[in-house]
Amino acid sequence: MATLLPGGQATVRGSREPYGPRVVSGELQCEASMTCQRCLQPVTVALQGSIHWGLVFSEREMQSLDQDLDPILIEEGQLFLRQAIEDEMVLLLPIMPMHESCDNGWIPDPEPGDVSEKESPFAVLAALKNEQGS
Ligand SMILES: [Zn+2]
For a surface tag, which of 2, 9, 32, 70 has the fewest beta carbons within 10 Å of its beta carbon? Predict the structure, then answer.
């Protein structure tokens, strides 16, 4: 599961071509809290995407909409902007969220303070390799 964190930003602007569909375009930026698929600790992922909506008022209009636009169905004359933006953000969520490196201390450090932080992951790997070899 993912939780959208507060502080997300969305910039949208509407336009309309003569005889064309109403178009809403914009940019989305937000962060979501998800579970890292490698270490199962919470991870914050940055989401960024753009909006290219075509507003439609019926299923039929949806069919004839330009392929480049994502159809947004206007129900009862209203655009549920917040809902539509949240839906868009959910689509941006990664399927396999992961930390760039899972250094949350879940790998026990055998000798804290003995090696520099940069070298420690390799030292752990080398130790594991030696154990397997013997
Ligand atoms: Zn992780």
Answer: 9
* Residue 134, beta-bridge partner list: none
pTM, rounded to two decimals = 0.62
- What's the token pair of residue 29? 């930026």
- Kindly give the distance from the C-alpha atom of residue 101 to the centroid of ligand 1, in angstroms, as a whole number: 6
End-to-end CA distance of the chain: 42
DSSP code string of 76-127 = TTB--HHHHHHHHHHHHS-SS---SS--SS-S--SSTTTS-TTTHHHHHHHH
List, for residues 75-92, the tens digit of each pLDDT value: 887 878 888 888 898 999
Query: What pLDDT digit, counting tens, does each position of 103-132 carry?
Result: 765 555 555 555 455 555 556 566 666 665
User: If you measure from the C-alpha of residue 92 to the centroid of ligand 1, how many angstroms do you get, rounded to a whole number?
Assistant: 19
Q: Tell how far the Cα of 86 is from the centroid of ligand 1, in angstroms.
A: 25
Residue boundaries of the structural domains of the chain: 3-92, 104-134
